[in-house]
Amino acid sequence: MYLTPQHILLAGATGLTGEHLLDRLLNEPTVSRVLAPSRRPLAEHPHLENPVGDFTSLLAELGGRVDIAFCCLGSTIKQAGSQDAFRAVDMDMVVAFGRRAREMGARHLLVISAVNADPESSIFYSRVKGEMEEALKDQNWPQLTIARPSLLIGEREDQRLVEQLAAPIAKLIPGKYGGIEACQLARALWRLALEEQDGIRVVESDELRRLGK
Questions:
Q1: Angle in degrees, CA 11, 132, 200, rounded to 5
Q2: Are β-strands 6-11 and 68-71 bridged in parallel, bridged antiparallel, or unpaired?
Q3: Are 34 and 10 in contact (CB under 8 A)?
Q4: Secondary structure letter of residue 176 according to DSSP
Q5: Which pTM value belongs to this model?
Q6: Is residue 102 a contact partner of residue 141, using CB atoms and an 8 Å limit?
Q7: Coil, helix or strand for 70?
Q8: Total tally of structural domains belonging to the chain
Q9: What digits encode the pLDDT tens for the residues 74-102?
């Protein structure tokens, strides 16, 4: 477990899980700095640095020491508008973030993927997530943690009807296909960040729920 003050790089701080994770990080006594680039401003905090603008452009301008990086970037094909636009966020942007975080000295990257991520999948969404995971593995991280939640449950600005209907049922599904609250996922990510364990770790939704209790 890390005992020295940590410098954190966070992508996706305005998203469902990212908001919960940011709140937790800013209230952790072991975290001295959170660098969170975003498209829209975040609430001010003494330990928060929040460059605002186009995310891809901001990456090159980021500076300072980074110990741990969290990537909570993610969209849906409907949100993105096309398969190409979805890939640009969930593959290209995530991989670029990982590369920049590594350049800044981060030793541990934690990334949110998805259940059934598989680069050989016939399902486009799962295939892109799997390709993203493989690209991050190729970056040779000392420590890479891949979180694969199932249905994410929580209050969204653009709450989808299907998610509203599925959420109560998803919570009851056992194993890795069971849904998980975004606040639980954020807690699990922080607990995983505190574990010093070299190599790659893939954490499925059931284990994430356990860690996030």
A1: 85
A2: parallel
A3: yes
A4: G
A5: 0.90
A6: yes
A7: strand
A8: 1
A9: 988 888 899 999 999 999 999 999 999 99
In the three-class reduction of DSSP (H, G, I as helix; E, B as strand; rest coil), residue 199 is classed as strand
**CB crowding 158-183: b at 16 or more within 10 Å, else e:** eeeeebeeebeebeeeeebebbbbbb
The CATH code of the domain that includes 63 is 3.40.50.720
Residue 197 domain flag: yes
- Do the beta carbons of residue 72 and residue 17 sit within 8 Å? yes
Name the band, by pLDDT with cuts 50, 70 and 90, for residue 174: low
> DSSP label at 38?
B
With a cut of 80, say whether residue 124 has pLDDT above it. yes
Q: What is the share, in percent, of the chain residues with pLDDT greater than 70?
A: 88
What pLDDT was estimated at residue 125?
96
Range of the domain at 61: 6-207
Residue owning tokens 């905090």:
45
Give the model's pLDDT for residue 169. Answer: 56
- The single-letter code of the amino acid at 6 is Q
**Is residue 1 assigned to a domain?**
no
Is the pLDDT reported for residue 168 higher than 70?
no
Q: Which of 136, 123, 30 has the alpha carbon at shortest distance from 73?
A: 136
